[in-house]
Amino acid sequence: MFSTLTKKAHVEWILRIAVAGEFIGHGVFALQGKEGWFKYFEAFGITDTERMVSILLIVGILDLLLAALVLIRPIKAAVLWMAFWGLFTAMIRWPFGPDPVWDFVERFANIGAPLALLFLLGWPKNWKELWK
């Protein structure tokens, strides 16, 4: 099967798997209510543990759904959201959160991989193309 794929198709699949892996990993951590992430909620004034766990449950389910979607049929709007979410989760470490700038830098791939996939799929020229 892989021998019949173009180089572009190979790269697309590599990026789809990489992005799905990122969102599966983060989704599972969120569903587990990863305690190490609580400090990021506190940076936004959320201190109630039950509320944090509830938000993480929603985020975890959404992350897993997006991971499945990018493997089954990558929709540009979803891939763009994944890049935005990668940027946001990097920024809750720094500058919004308590971590050093290097925690932000370390997460550039969480932003870059979905963006690279989106460019490979074709940057949407209008709202209608976002949903293809």
Strand elements, count: 0
Query: How many domains, in number, for the residues?
Result: 1
The number of helices is 7
* Coarse morphology: elongated
Report helical residue fraction.
over 70%
Q: Termini separation (Å)?
A: 25 Å
Plain-language structure description:
- The chain has one domain (2-130).
- It has 132 residues and is mostly helical.
- The radius of gyration is 16 Å and the shape is elongated.
- The protein is 70% helix and 0% strand.
- It starts with 6 loop residues before the first helix and ends with a helix.
- The mean pLDDT is 95.
- The chain has helices at 7-31, 38-42, 49-72, 76-91, 101-105, 108-121, 127-130.
Provide key terms for this protein:
132 residues, elongated, 7 helices, mainly alpha
